[in-house]
Structure formats: structure tokens, C-alpha cells
Design goal:
By secondary structure, the chain is mainly α. It contains 6 helices and no strands.
Length: 109
């Protein structure tokens, strides 16, 4: 098989070694090999031409392209949730401090 394995076959083998436990990525990579047999792992994952990086983050829980603007935090919207919850947390903190002050005053009288 190795003797008669062409460029597309070699590309598919590389895909299998890169994504052996990730079935959806493996299938996508093998399909991409038909159009580009010189495909690299970074080109496949980070170019935006073959797979959606946010789907990879959501499905597999890791960021394949560390030096770009798409991060797990931006994908999950954690920064937006923190900004929305900050006023609520401040009010709850003030209520807690007020309750502790009232308890302290009651216990010292």
C-alpha cells in the first residue's frame, strides 16, 4: 500500500495521525485532502477555509489556533456574562455587608 500511495493517500494518512480520536475533524480533513494534498495541520485548522474554529472549541474544548482573536472565552461569551452580572454581584455584596453590620451592632448592644 505504501508503494502505491499517492499524494491524496498520504494526506489522508496524516489526517488520521492528527485527528485519530476526533471523528468529525478526521472526516473533514480527509475530504479537504481531495482538493489540497499538501494540507498542513495549521492550515486545515486555522485558515477558516475547512473548519470553523469556534465549533472545534465548543466540541473538543481546546483552541487549535492560539495566536488569533478567537478564544474559548470569546466563544463561550464569558466576558459578556461577567459584564452583565457585575452590578448584581455588587448589590449582593452590599446587602451582605449591610447584614453583617446590623448583626454586629445587635450583638454589641
Amino acid at each position: 500500500m505504501g508503494l502505491f500511495c499517492g499524494k491524496t493517500c498520504k494526506c489522508k494518512r496524516r489526517c488520521k495521525s492528527w485527528f485519530s480520536g476526533m471523528d468529525s475533524l478526521l472526516d473533514s480533513c480527509k475530504a479537504a485532502c481531495k482538493g489540497n494534498s499538501r494540507l498542513t495541520k495549521d492550515n486545515f485548522l486555522c485558515s477558516g477555509n475547512y473548519v470553523d474554529q469556534q465549533n472545534i472549541i465548543l466540541q473538543y474544548g481546546y483552541d487549535p489556533c492560539l495566536d488569533d482573536a478567537i478564544t474559548p472565552e470569546s466563544t463561550l461569551g464569558i466576558e459578556d456574562q461577567w459584564a452583565k452580572m457585575q452590578p448584581v454581584l455588587i448589590i449582593l455584596g452590599l446587602i451582605l455587608i449591610g447584614a453583617l453590620v446590623i448583626l454586629y451592632i445587635k450583638n454589641n448592644k
